[in-house]
Automatic annotation (TrEMBL):
This is MerR family transcriptional regulator. It comes from the Bacteria. GO terms for molecular function: DNA binding; DNA-binding transcription factor activity. The lineage of its organism: Bacteria, Bacillati, Bacillota, Clostridia, Lachnospirales. Residues 1-73 form the HTH merR-type domain. Keywords: DNA-binding, Repressor, Transcription, Transcription regulation. SUPFAM superfamilies: Putative DNA-binding domain.
């Protein structure tokens, strides 16, 4: 083996960026010599072997502070470090699995919206029994809003001038009861609902009400289950809409 090796040669051999090698040197993870003529870093066979250890432990996500101890760690201390690392990896696996589950839920929501777009105005049972106003001052409400966004709903009553944001749970006395199921046999029709991002207006609902009226339906309250947000001519929140059917004068 040629001795000593340059930083570029080490970078190619170990598939480690030169910037990482320089950083490890600055943190004293490895012992290097300098060329007497040009002051460049020089890597010996011994240093190359030590670096391969660094690369190995980095692949295990070992923290830098633990890697710094490797040059003087005892077998027992090394085992303790690896036990702690194993615990951290288990926690990270749990976090990644939760993230993967959330990604799957969001993709299901997008597919749900696309299916409703392709087959709008179908009868379907509503999947909640009660709705409360959203308490914007409550941290617990925000935590639930973020962790389970499908629990976020939009509510529009023909008797009110603007839609309201609600949840299926009450988190404080400030959460007002907006709606409660009275008739479990009540009919609903689903439709794709897109509203202005974070700013739903009455006008977002009117086209669907007009279509249903043209189909012979008399509509009541309208709900929307939040699915996702994206851009479609403008930034929008997309919901699975449910409209209460009061009466039907003729067939579809």
């Amino acid at each position: 083996m040629k001795q000593p090796l340059s930083i570029g040669e080490i970078s190619q051999l170990l598939n480690v960026p030169k910037s990482t090698l320089r950083y490890w040197d600055s943190e004293n993870l490895i012992d290097l010599t300098r060329n007497d003529v040009n002051n460049y870093r020089e890597y010996s066979r011994h240093t190359l072997i030590a670096l391969s250890d660094m690369v190995y432990y980095r692949s295990l996500n070992m923290p830098l502070k633990e890697m710094k101890r490797l040059k003087a760690v005892t077998p027992k201390d090394l085992k303790d470090s690896l036990i702690a690392l194993d615990k951290n990896l288990e926690n990270e696996i749990d976090r990644l699995l939760k993230s993967k589950a959330e990604l799957k839920k969001r993709m299901i929501n997008i597919n749900t919206y696309m299916e409703i777009v392709n087959r709008p105005y179908q009868q379907e049972a509503i999947d909640f029994k009660v709705l409360y106003s959203f308490d914007y001052q409550n941290p617990e409400a925000w935590s639930e809003c973020i962790s389970d966004q499908y629990e976020n709903l939009i509510y529009y009553d023909n008797d009110t001038s603007c839609p309201q944001i609600g949840m299926t749970k009450a988190f404080s006395t400030k959460s007002r009861l907006l709606w409660k199921e009275k008739d479990k046999n009540q009919s609903y029709i689903t439709f794709p609902l897109a509203v202005g991002y974070g700013n739903p207006t009455r006008e977002d609902f009117l086209p669907h009400i007009d279509i249903l009226k043209s189909m012979g339906y008399e509509t009541g309250k309208i709900f929307g289950r939040y699915l996702f947000s994206a851009f479609d001519k403008k930034h929008c929140d997309f919901y699975k809409g449910f409209v209460e059917i009061i009466d039907k004068n003729n067939g579809i």
